[in-house]
Design brief:
The chain is about 30% helix and about 25% strand. The protein has about 325 residues and is an alpha+beta fold. Strands 8, 9, 10, 11, 12, 13, 14, 15 and 16 form a 9-stranded mixed β-sheet that branches. Strands 1, 2, 3, 4, 5, 6, 7 and 17 form an 8-stranded antiparallel β-sheet that branches. Bound molecules: 2-[O-phosphonopyridoxyl]-amino-pentanoic acid.
């Protein structure tokens, strides 16, 4: 991620200036990774900003908190309003990334956190593509295995879990690859360091199941739904490492990564080394979905500035009284 900035951060119920969104060095979350977070995108279209699947992301945040027993002192509605308010305050009108974070806020050295307060911060920054856009990414299979249910619950989006992703990602970058693909504890394909993975075989989309230690991605869910509605077959099943090598197409899905074609794995070219037709179709559909342009799924997006309602109201005022 880059060093994007904005004027304000939503910090424990208030908008504070960017520089003022600070915590103490002995904060429990800073020392032990005890924070649940989300990554959400907002997209500009026709002067409006649309937040994609905001409620789904915040519900996952609630579940992450539940798994770890973090108190989340704000309701879903309050968090939705906070995200909207924050984009407005920062006057954002470009591709934006929203990062809500619920953290154990006690200051001290003990590991137990019962009775300690939790804090909530939401940052929103301009954010374009996650991977440098040269048509896709070259990936390696990492020797670091994805965290498994035996030690950490992979379906919770917890700051501390990302130490695993950081090891795999840095190993990949240091070896000249754009991304790492992690295997699960059994040796099947799990996911990228911050993305789910799909492969295409005989025109079918295949993606690893929850039991392969994945984070249940909202982009993954969106892609499954969009593909099925297009009449494509989607299978959730274990994927072996060599199936990756011989797949016709492969791509990553994630809020930050959106849909990113995988051009090679371990230096083995996927398909003809260019984004395949199904991948391109999914990119096109996803591009429409995030601005509310898929019929029947307009409710996936939350308008920030509510321009439509405003213009309706203005229109009503302008109507002459008969
Ligand atoms: N798997 C992992 C480990 C992730 O971190 C993410 C999201 C996904 C899958 C995809 O989930 P979703 O489709 O719901 O976004 N990663 C974050 C993101 O905002 C952080 C990336 C730096 O995309």
């Amino acid at each position: 991620m880059g060093n994007q900035k904005a004027d304000y951060v939503w910090f424990n119920g208030k908008l504070v200036r960017w520089e003022e969104a600070k915590v103490h060095v002995l904060t429990h979350a800073f020392n032990y990774g005890t924070a649940a977070f989300e990554g959400i995108r907002a997209y500009p279209y026709n002067g409006e900003m649309y937040i994609f699947r905001l409620k789904d992301h915040l519900e996952r945040l609630q579940n992450s908190c539940k798994i770890y027993g973090f108190n989340l002192n704000y309701t879903l509605e309050q968090l939705i309003d906070a995200c909207i308010e924050l984009i407005k305050a920062n006057k954002l009108h470009e591709r934006t990334y929203i990062r809500p974070l619920v953290y154990v806020a006690g200051v001290g050295v003990g590991i137990g956190f019962s009775g300690q307060p939790t804090g909530v911060a939401i940052a929103a920054v301009p954010f374009d593509t996650y991977f440098s856009s040269d048509g896709g990414v070259h990936a390696m299979v990492s020797s670091w295995r994805r965290i498994s249910e035996e030690s950490l619950p992979p379906s919770a989006k917890i700051a501390g879990h990302y130490a695993n992703s950081v090891l795999a990602k840095m190993h990949a970058l240091e070896n000249g690859y754009g991304e790492a693909i992690m295997l699960d504890s059994k040796g099947n394909v799990s996911e990228g360091t911050g993305e789910n993975i799909f492969i295409v075989k005989e025109k079918r989309l295949i993606t690893p199941p929850l039991s392969s230690g994945i984070l249940e991605g909202i982009t993954r869910k969106t892609v499954i739904q969009l593909a099925q509605e297009e009449g494509m077959e989607v299978v959730e099943r274990e994927v072996t490492r060599v199936e990756l090598y011989t797949s016709e197409e492969a791509f990553f899905t994630g809020t930050a990564a959106e849909i990113t074609p995988i051009l090679s794995v371990d230096k083995k070219q996927i398909g003809n080394g260019k984004p395949g037709s199904i991948t391109r179709k999914m990119i096109e559909l996803y591009g429409k979905a995030v601005i509310g342009k898929i019929e029947g799924h307009e409710d996936w997006v939350t308008p920030v500035y509510k321009l439509e309602e405003k213009s309706k109201k203005m229109g009503a005022k302008a109507t002459p009284i008969s």
